[in-house]
Amino acid sequence: MVVAMKQIHVVAGVIRDARGRILLARRTEGRDLAGLWEFPGGKVEAGESPEDALIRELHEELGIQATVGASLIRVPQQYPGKRLLLDARHVEFDGVPEGLDGQALAWVPQGDLADYPMPPADVPVVAALTQPDRYLVTPAPGDDEAWLTSLADALAHGVRRVQLRARDVEARRWRGLVARAVALSRRVGAEVLLNGDIAQAREAGIGVHLRSAQLHDAALQASLDDMRAAGHAIAASCHDAGDLQRAEALGCSFVVLGPLQATASHPGQPGIGWDAFSGVREHVSLPIYAIGGLAPVDIADARTHGAQGIAAIRGLWPGGNA
Ligand SMILES: Nc1nc2c([nH]c(=O)n2[C@@H]2O[C@H](COP(=O)(O)OP(=O)(O)OP(=O)(O)O)[C@@H](O)[C@H]2O)c(=O)[nH]1
Ligand SMILES: [Mg+2]
Q: GO molecular function: any one (predicted)?
């Protein structure tokens, strides 16, 4: 009989100084994951609320008086021999943080967080702080100008990560649309990826979003190495733990997992639901967008279950019509 390991609830604080830099602490020698940087915090004790646990830990470890604010993300993560729930909260504080356990401290500008080696569970936490919480997937273009106007509208409403996707659009027309969509997105600093076509993505100077079947196609390895060497992002669509592990091994910077709910575009395909989503996400440390019948109102739920946010066609396309 397989007995599920008990999940250890750990609360950690996202602590900022007046300049917006974030406090990291270095795990001391002799503990697990020694030498790695972490968000200060620790385990919730029996009978303790997560808020009280975080206040206690930050007082013990840093000597500060904390006020616990909003939740950032809750990341379920498996380590060898242990299951963790890393529950990251925004924190305000009084006092001057000091490394009372002898741990080194660093105030890190948000954009430099990726330079600090951290435990696997922290990768989604850093992504939640620094990367978009929504990922627009474009619907197939009917009228080209209307499609571009809707894209511009979505960008004006704050979309900053876009996957250009169209099936059955003639190659020359699609090339033209991609070029114009890239120009619109660049103007506002949004990141663009192209669905499926590695060569075309390379040519357009953008990232590629792999279909799940492509994850398992060894013949693509060389062209993906080339994408990575050129500094272009690789993302992927995943349906199960096997896909996620493959995407992580390929060096994907983020993925989409679903369908979360049954959708009109995939009738008869049941959604996996949030609990199964959390269960699958434990096995990798990639940022994962949930997809399938979701909209911006679902982002808080997504974060509670360890997702980076939501990916959507209808839910993020102006007017909601594909
Ligand atoms: N505080 C904290 N712990 C983290 C982070 N990421 C991460 O994987 N962990 C893991 O969460 C677990 C609990 O952390 P901890 O060692 O700080 O627990 P604690 O303060 O209660 O102290 P303890 O060592 O006396 O039990 C450890 O296995 C640690 O490796 C993080 O960002 N912050
Ligand atoms: Mg601790």
A: 8-oxo-GDP phosphatase activity
